């Protein structure tokens, strides 16, 4: 009798659960080698293998189920070979749950004049020490496989806003070619690979990009090139173009977005996954999220305010500390201010996702969506 051959672990399985009868919102369960993720989900951003100011233990307590790490930054320091030699990104950062790595495309192209794009790839000068490097789709995949994340992203070209139609056309074709090269180079059986839809803000090019990427075939699909200054209305118009063209059976990921209201609007259009630096970045500037918008903890009106950031919030920060104390820490430059602010903001995002999942499952997301649109006013910072 021949020995039983074990099948390699499956990179990804996605099961859609409840659906909203009024919108395209849906819940699901994303099964990955290192755990399951309930969708819609928000992924805290750990650019250098750490979510700024928040330890992995605290992330677990907040309910985070997956985090994002950055290929470009980890390639430059400490190096993907070192991370691989130390057991991969999860072991390296002390996080035993799923990780998604982006491809580094956005970071490379954000270097502007420091990078040069050709059909083969990108050459750029490091923002760390000025050293010269060349990124290709194949190298991006190699780095992400060495890091060992559960989900890797194809290398794509992220256009600035605004861009000309000709620039968008060339970029759409180039990104499709790079996506195919990434898939050909990807050999890690227990790592999922997501394609990315580009196309700027030209509806026909967005549709062409979505069709090209889905024709190649990936484990999941992302919408890139949004939240680059175009405004919410144009972002939502682009989602309305793209989302119906993506496979229903695969997870859909909106990259780099955004405000709480952006998340609610995108979930209503069928998006399953999100990431954004906003919760932790805003925490470092004293901007704290509430159900009515943001408050500026630096404002003098909070100097003697004994209440929490938001009444009824169950996060560690709101349960234990007053606005007066948070303002004192921030004005004094105490590092604890950044940690407590980040805990509150991440709790706000993660609990928002939990409430959306519950609303979809209970058949009341339509009302939830309408209420959120009425309540959230990110453009107005409350004093």
CATH topology of the largest domain: TIM Barrel
Biggest beta-sheet profile = 8 strands, parallel
Q: Number of DSSP helices?
A: 15
End-to-end span in angstroms?
75 Å
Instruction: Please tell me what the overall shape is.
Output: globular
Mean pLDDT: 94
Major sheet: order of its strands? Answer: 4-14-13-12-11-10-6-5
- Number-wise, the strands total 17
CATH architecture of the largest domain: Alpha-Beta Barrel
**Unreliable residue runs:** 1-8
What share of the residues does DSSP label as strand, in percent? 15-25%
Helix/strand structural class = alpha/beta
In words, what does this structure look like?
It is a single chain. By secondary structure, the protein is an alpha/beta fold. It has two domains: 13-276, Queuine tRNA-ribosyltransferase-like (TIM Barrel, Alpha-Beta Barrel); 287-382, no CATH class. It is built from 15 helices and 17 strands. The strands form four sheets. An eight-stranded parallel beta sheet has the order 4-14-13-12-11-10-6-5. It has a three-stranded antiparallel beta sheet with strand order 1-2-3. Helix 6 packs across helix 7 (165-185), helix 10 runs antiparallel to helix 15 and helix 13 (323-332) crosses helix 14. The longest helix has 27 residues, at 335-361. The model is unreliable at 1-8 (pLDDT under 50).
